């Protein structure tokens, strides 16, 4: 992988001398070895957060960490298979232990295998349920005491949990039943958890990307490209911008949900 920072050299970060908006914050981003997770980790680091990144491919994470450190940021690499609840919970504990706090958790790791009920493989169903849903449940519960403590005691007065769902979490299509089911479940879980913790300063946000150029969407036999030419798709950095928009709101304001599609995507 060549990790590319589209904002390198741009003036989108904190102005010289100004305090970066997430300075002093610690963030954990799942599925950061590629795509949206990598772009989000870079964006959070540029905003001043110390980041921990987790996925299975350690070398890809190390490459990302080198880019972040090269820009003066801090990045901790954690390797885990988040489909395993024990490893998923441990990743949160490791990140929170490393930073002695946790301000932000971005549950981004995901897997898609297209296919109708009749013709899809139950092994793929399990992979999607374990990663897209169960990992989100386990990591959110494990992170919650840390996020509540940060919200109560930290200088920002809030903490953030962002779950990356999908347009498929709102719009059902017949060739994508299980992925869509997991993402709908993430949406329901996010809203219930938002209500549970809203009064205690933890913001729970849901981001629903449309077609985005990443390995998931462009890999052989993965997500259907439908009729949209790839040059019209979103870039991972577009979704990272939506995520950082949520996280950098003032403490009294919570952006609960963002669906972001390519301009030309109809459904
Ligand atoms: N791209 C799109 O068009 C699109 C549209 C809607 C929603 N989304 C959502 O966006 C999120 C990010 O996807 P992406 O598009 O950025 O795809 P991606 O580039 O394929 O990234 C997926 C990430 O998940 C990680 N991952 C997969 N299985 C894992 C496991 N068992 N344990 C730990 N990490 C695992 C991968 O890392 P390793 O392989 O190194 O483990 C990778 O970092 C997903 O939740 C996806 O459903 C994407």
UniProtKB/TrEMBL annotation:
<dbReference type="InterPro" id="IPR036291">
    <property type="entry name" value="NAD(P)-bd_dom_sf"/>
</dbReference>
<comment type="similarity">
    <text>Belongs to the short-chain dehydrogenases/reductases (SDR) family.</text>
</comment>
<keyword id="KW-0560">Oxidoreductase</keyword>
<dbReference type="InterPro" id="IPR020904">
    <property type="entry name" value="Sc_DH/Rdtase_CS"/>
</dbReference>
<dbReference type="Pfam" id="PF00106">
    <property type="entry name" value="adh_short"/>
</dbReference>
<dbReference type="InterPro" id="IPR002347">
    <property type="entry name" value="SDR_fam"/>
</dbReference>
<protein>
    <submittedName>
        <fullName>SDR family NAD(P)-dependent oxidoreductase</fullName>
    </submittedName>
</protein>
